[in-house]
From TrEMBL:
<feature type="active site" description="Proton donor">
    <location>
        <position position="172"/>
    </location>
</feature>
<feature type="binding site">
    <location>
        <position position="30"/>
    </location>
    <ligand>
        <name>a divalent metal cation</name>
    </ligand>
</feature>
<feature type="binding site">
    <location>
        <begin position="139"/>
        <end position="142"/>
    </location>
    <ligand>
        <name>substrate</name>
    </ligand>
</feature>
<comment type="function">
    <text>Catalyzes the reversible epimerization of D-ribulose 5-phosphate to D-xylulose 5-phosphate.</text>
</comment>
<keyword id="KW-0413">Isomerase</keyword>
<comment type="pathway">
    <text>Carbohydrate degradation.</text>
</comment>
<feature type="binding site">
    <location>
        <position position="7"/>
    </location>
    <ligand>
        <name>substrate</name>
    </ligand>
</feature>
<keyword id="KW-0464">Manganese</keyword>
<feature type="binding site">
    <location>
        <position position="32"/>
    </location>
    <ligand>
        <name>a divalent metal cation</name>
    </ligand>
</feature>
<keyword id="KW-0862">Zinc</keyword>
<feature type="binding site">
    <location>
        <begin position="172"/>
        <end position="174"/>
    </location>
    <ligand>
        <name>substrate</name>
    </ligand>
</feature>
<protein>
    <recommendedName>
        <fullName>Ribulose-phosphate 3-epimerase</fullName>
        <ecNumber>5.1.3.1</ecNumber>
    </recommendedName>
</protein>
<dbReference type="InterPro" id="IPR000056">
    <property type="entry name" value="Ribul_P_3_epim-like"/>
</dbReference>
<dbReference type="InterPro" id="IPR013785">
    <property type="entry name" value="Aldolase_TIM"/>
</dbReference>
<dbReference type="InterPro" id="IPR026019">
    <property type="entry name" value="Ribul_P_3_epim"/>
</dbReference>
<keyword id="KW-0170">Cobalt</keyword>
<dbReference type="GO" id="GO:0019323">
    <property type="term" value="P:pentose catabolic process"/>
</dbReference>
Amino acid sequence: MAQINPSILSADFSRLAEEAKAVEGADWLHVDVMDNHFVPNLTLGVPVVEALGKAAGTPLDCHLMIEEPDRWAPQYVEAGAGSVTFHAEAAAAPVRLAREIRAKGARASMALKPATPIEPYEDLLPELDMLLIMTVEPGFGGQAFLDIMLPKIRRARQMIAKHGLELWLQVDGGVSADTVERCADAGADVFVAGSAVYGADDPAAAVRMLRHQADE
Ligand code: DX5
Ligand code: ZN
């Protein structure tokens, strides 16, 4: 079954705990950590993740859009994240980092920006629990879905099948009622949605609707 991960980036930051509770029933809560260097935006860090982990009834899927993830990612596991995603473009030693995240007890995930090919990372896939294909340039919520990424999602799914791997394939950026089915058809099974969930009158209903569409 498809997993839907609402992105807290599109929530009201002055009411984070309530906003987290508004999407109970979602599989994971997606938390976008940005450092103003890897991406031109600054969001939140370890202390907020720790507080959110305690307040939310949903496990945290932390997406680190930061420089030096080798140095910082383990702290997000210690703060309570159940899944930690680092960017391939920023990691100095992705295999070592993925192993460290797993050893500390979280799921290890690696993200690729739109212009980063998957092929150079094929041999690393067994080290990961999830691969994130960005379907917008990372940095902001509410951007238009890049449908030129669909062939990359398809190639990733084929690669996962070829190696007989269990890893999840996540898409993030512009996922909505209009685009979720195309992503699912291409082989994605974990869907991040920010504006499509928090921009809806009933965020929990939006999660159920997206899951239903993805599973069709
Ligand atoms: C963008 C973030 C996304 C963002 C998605 O850099 O990684 O998680 O919150 O927001 P929407 O779903 O509105 O594109
Ligand atoms: Zn994200």
